[in-house]
Write a structure and sequence with these properties.
By secondary structure, the protein is an alpha/beta fold. The protein has 9 helices and 8 strands. Helix 3 packs parallel to helix 5. The two termini are 18 Å apart.
Length: 220
């Protein structure tokens, strides 16, 4: 297993500069990460920087709250793809889920997926805001709406990924969708635990140190 191929090398801070994005993309190319994950305004720049590599560009939609309109999310997603994004990470409408307005949650995800077609859609369910039953329900809705991945967290909430939640998500999706664990994954041991539980992708800003840790273990 090559840990670098699981990593979405992430920088979503609102204060991220062009210099920061350039460094992110340089690191991603050097370590051959799966993708860089950046805010929408940096998609064209990131695409240009990784164009001569296999690194993909991932961006976020309805981020970090998920509370904007579906039409806004659809526009954001379509524009991002036009500008070079290879994958979309959208935030589920958490308030609608907690209101038990499951039809609205479903339509929100479905409409974005219909708009972007074969482009992979990861839906962030923000597990720190949900009960265990809500995590399962959110995951089921993601499956119904044909999302490609269920993603644990934005990294901007009060908590990130948990092993318990990933176990629950995996039990629900089985092999019908993939899982992205993100939020608070800062070392190799933690990343490997999530992968062992069934995570297909790791969202982290600590990708470089995780890969270095992995290489150090090999060389011991």
């Amino acid at each position: 297993m090559k840990i670098n191929e699981y990593i979405d090398h992430t920088l979503l801070k609102p204060s991220a500069t062009q210099k920061d994005i350039k460094a992110l993309c340089s690191e991603a190319k050097k370590h051959r990460f799966y993708s860089v994950c950046v805010n929408g305004s940096y998609v064209p720049y990131a695409k240009q920087l990784v164009s001569k590599s296999n690194v993909k560009v991932c961006t976020v939609v309805g981020f970090p709250l998920g509370a904007c309109t579906t039409e806004t999310k659809v526009f954001e997603a379509k524009q991002a793809i036009e500008q070079g994004a290879d994958e979309i990470d959208m935030v589920m409408n958490i308030g609608m889920l907690k209101s038990e307005n499951y039809v609205s949650v479903y339509k929100d995800i479905r409409d974005v997926k219909l708009a972007i077609g074969k482009t992979p859609l990861k839906v962030i369910i923000e597990i720190c805001e949900l009960s265990k039953n809500e995590v399962v329900k959110a995951t089921q809705i993601c499956l119904d709406a044909k999302a490609d991945f269920v993603k644990t967290s934005t990294g901007f909430g009060k908590g990130g990924a948990t092993l318990t939640a990933v176990k629950m998500i995996k039990k629900t999706v089985r092999n019908q969708a993939k899982i992205k664990a993100s939020g608070g994954i800062k070392n190799l041991e933690t990343a490997l635990k999530y992968i062992d539980l069934g995570a297909n992708r790791i969202g982290t800003s600590s990708g470089v140190s995780i890969v270095q840790e992995s290489k150090a273990k090999v060389n011991v």
